[in-house]
Amino acid sequence: MDNAKVLSKIKLSLKRLPIYKYRYFWFIVPATILFVALVCGAVYSGDNVFGNFANVGIDFEGGTVLTVNITGGGSYNENVKIVEETVESHGLSVSSSQSSGANSVVVRYANFVDGADWSGEDKTQDMITLNNTVAADVENALKAAYPSVIVNATAETINATASRDFINKALLAVGVAMVLMLIYTAFRFDFFSGLAALCTQLIDVIVTLSLVIIFRVSINSSLIAALITVVAYSINNTIVIFDRVRENMAPFKHKDKNKVDVPYILESSVTECLRRAAFTTLTTLITIVILAAWGIPSLTEFALPIIFGILSGLYSSIFLAPSIWGMLMDAKRNKAFKKKQALKARKR
């Protein structure tokens, strides 16, 4: 192949990315991420590693949230060290510590005492009594370290039933958001567009959760807020691309749609929206990355899933959503063609 033909092919690919041509290959990336997550989860479940498939937080697993309001004590790190040492002196293991406001420390720990499970209903009252003792000891420890400190510690016990209710409500919230997106996209464009958008949203959620498992990000209430943010952000780029597809399909509105070059329409539309999608994602990522790198655990736990979801959303909007829409259109046209051929055969 001479240089002129090579250059012409490069120019054509820059004007129209071959998205639909390689439509089946785009699904390899999310499938690979899911596979890696399953392998990592199996490894993490080993007794000599983490002991559990994912890093499930107190909000989902059940446990205790100890909130300590401190006025006039030492630095944040010193206060956290005293609180954690006091909690662990009772045979408990702190799972996370974070600040809340200017003067508060929030510590979470599972309801396991010296390795024994106290999360059952028969141990609920014993756990409440122990948590009250822990809260009182934390106050005394801080007052002993800083005589002028004003401190108030309260412990909230979250049992397994409350955790299950929380999970159900969280899943319902994400599901409702996705169904509403489906209805909106289907009404604004067509049913295939809504179905393609819903499929890509499901893929984005699966990819985000897979990366959360791989990188051991805590699965808590912040993750649910992050997932809803991801779903809303992902649909934005998808709608922009489908809107361009509709504009490019407009000249063929009153013609035989079976003769429309769907791959050409799709690939041209995606290429026209590519720069806008990339710049929008980049500017959003800059802000979220700063939050993730700020050093505050609660912000990091919230920001990391959003980073995963934004990157997945960009990929799915460009490669997966148009491919799914095109495959659905092809299936519809093939069905109509076969039906037409069957009618011709009957007439003969």
Describe this structure in words.
With 348 residues, the chain is α+β, with helices and mostly antiparallel strands. It has 2 domains: 17-41 and 163-340, Multidrug efflux transporter AcrB transmembrane fold; 63-158, Ribosomal protein S10 (Alpha-Beta Plaits). Helices cover 67% and strands 10% of the residues. The protein has 10 helices and 6 strands, in the order αααβαββββαβααααα. Helix 6 (160-188) runs parallel beside helix 8 (221-249), helix 7 packs antiparallel against helix 8 and helix 8 (221-249) runs antiparallel to helix 9 (262-292). The chain is elongated and about 95 Å long. Residues 4-13 have low confidence and may be disordered.
What attributes characterize this protein structure?
348 residues, alpha+beta, Multidrug efflux transporter AcrB transmembrane fold, Alpha-Beta Plaits, four-stranded antiparallel sheet, two-stranded antiparallel sheet, 6 strands, 67% helix, 10% strand
Question: Strand fraction band?
Answer: 5-15%
- Determine the CATH topology of the largest domain: Multidrug efflux transporter AcrB transmembrane fold
Give the overall silhouette: elongated
Task: Give the name of the CATH superfamily of the largest domain.
Answer: Multidrug efflux transporter AcrB transmembrane domain
Number of E-state strands: 6
Spans of 5+ residues with little confidence (pLDDT < 50)? Answer: 4-13
Distance between the termini: 48 Å
What is the number of helical segments per DSSP (H or I, 4+ residues)?
A: 10
Q: Under the CATH scheme, which architecture of the largest domain would be assigned?
A: Up-down Bundle
Binned, the helix content reads: 55-70%
- What is the top-level CATH class of the largest domain? Mainly Alpha
The number of domains: 2
